[in-house]
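hiii so um. not sure if this is the right channel but i have a protein structure encoded as tokens and i wanna go backwards to a sequence. like what aa goes where. can anyone help
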């Protein structure tokens, strides 16, 4: 009986609560629309063709077809007012042609966002969604931010398979 009670008590879910200062710092970042996200992991949609390519040993140790370590690889998504800037390495299949020279393999934004929406989550985080255009594609971008400054992004396009990223959000430095 004692073992059962201790087992049930240990399985009780622990609610992860954020401090008021963490919540306020995140709220200020979101309200000011002036932040940067650096991703540590890319999570591409795995297809049979991609699995075969990645099984050839092209990935660094610790990575696999569904989880690619980005530490040490330059990447960012910056929001400054209504403007968006990004360089996100893309791992996955394209559904249309790539420009000659392969210069559009990464997801790169430099311009204005449209349809920007923010909603507060029950866990004191935020969901952000918007549309952005690169040179030849349009993307639907979905971002979740938490008070501990962790982030999750998902990008969808009609020209590429979807990909998600996890990382950290921070205040954008003004140059």
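sure thing!! here u go:
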């Amino acid at each position: 009986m004692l073992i059962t009670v201790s087992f049930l008590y240990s399985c009780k879910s622990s609610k992860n609560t954020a401090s008021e200062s963490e919540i306020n710092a995140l709220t200020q970042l979101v309200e000011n629309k002036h932040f940067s996200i650096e991703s540590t992991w890319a999570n591409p949609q795995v297809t049979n063709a991609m699995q075969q390519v990645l099984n050839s040993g092209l990935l660094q140790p610790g990575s696999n077809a569904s989880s690619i370590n980005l530490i040490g690889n330059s990447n960012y998504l910056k929001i400054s007012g209504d403007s968006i800037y990004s360089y996100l390495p893309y791992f996955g299949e394209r559904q249309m042609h790539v420009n000659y020279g392969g210069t559009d393999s990464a997801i790169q934004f430099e311009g204005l966002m449209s349809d920007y929406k923010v909603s507060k989550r029950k866990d004191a985080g935020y969901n952000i969604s918007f549309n952005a255009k690169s040179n030849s594609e349009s993307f639907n971008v979905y971002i979740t931010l938490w008070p501990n400054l962790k982030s999750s992004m998902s990008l969808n396009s009609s020209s590429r398979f979807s990909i998600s990223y996890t990382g950290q959000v921070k205040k954008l430095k003004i140059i």
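oh and The beta strands are 34-44, 68-69, 76-80, 83-88, 107-112, 114-120, 126-133, 138-145, 150-157, 163-171.
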